[in-house]
Amino acid sequence: MVLNNFAIVLRDRGNLRGARAHWEEALELKDTSGDLRGASIVRLNLGLLVTIEGDPRFALKIFTQATKTLRDLGNQSLLAEGLLALADTHIRIADFQSAANDLEELEVLCETLDEAQYTDRTSFVRVLLEFEQGNNDGLLNRVRPIFDRLHEIGDPEIDSSTRPTLIRMLLDEGRVPEAKTEIEWARAAAEKSGSLLFRHQIAIVEADVMAATGKSHDAKSLLQTVIREAAGSGYVSTSLEARLGLAKIEAMTSDTRATKDMITDLAAEAERRGFKLIAIRARELMTTNDK
């Protein structure tokens, strides 16, 4: 798995082209040798890479192939990872019913797994699904104990990938001081992970906190930095997310044609690339801006 591990390092450092080359080579070797488990691990990593590069629909095909193989192999832990990836991607493309189906399979699978983290990660994504669907009542009370248990695992990647959702929920309830405290923890976890993806995701939600405290100029500056870095590294997914954050601030502070054009262009590109949830959120800004 040397190629796979090296590819992870390259991805986290922002070298997506190098990571893809190593994973494609590793996948060819695994497929040729008949190593189904190894090939599935590579596909799970490659699917995430493809999502970052801006093609979540292709990522779904990769994840689906991996999970089918893992079901046949009976590898429950890796199957759980694959189903979590599928659920996350289905949320990104706003296919909420398919995400719910993934989570139902996961919930059954978790009953046979000894590792509690999978139960908590599944519950966390279930809460995220409800949040994205607008069902916010009581979600923060549900997610806090789940997050605390995940935090205790001590995995900076799990911490970095889940904390932005917690911060967004805090902001949604107007609990800005708590959100500011969580940002400090989130930034430390992202740095510890060594992942450019997580650093960008934390920066995007940090900009939300800045905007909520009246620091719109600083928030826009931070988001513009993320957009530049993402463009330079080929991180399409985080570029779109940062542009959405920037659009939210502009929609709150400006009603110009330039703002409307920016939001329209963002929605169109997100839709074209398959990031339907971002497209939906952008169009919601247009509706709000027109009122």
Keywords:
mainly alpha; 15 helices; 291 residues; Serine Threonine Protein Phosphatase 5, Tetratricopeptide repeat; single chain; globular
End-to-end Cα distance: 55 Å
* Fraction of residues in helix: over 70%
Query: How does the helix and strand content classify structurally?
Result: mainly alpha
CATH superfamily of the largest domain: Tetratricopeptide repeat domain
**Mean of pLDDT:** 93
- Written as H for each helix and E for each strand, in order along the chain, the element string is HHHHHHHHHHHHHHH
CATH hierarchy class name of the largest domain: Mainly Alpha
- Helix count equals 15
Ranges with pLDDT <50 over ≥5 residues?
A: none
Multimerization state: single chain
The global form is globular
The CATH topology of the largest domain is Serine Threonine Protein Phosphatase 5, Tetratricopeptide repeat
Question: If you compute it from the alpha carbons, what radius of gyration comes out, rounded to the nearest whole angstrom?
Answer: 19 Å
Number of strands: 0
Question: How many domains make up the 3D coordinates?
Answer: 2
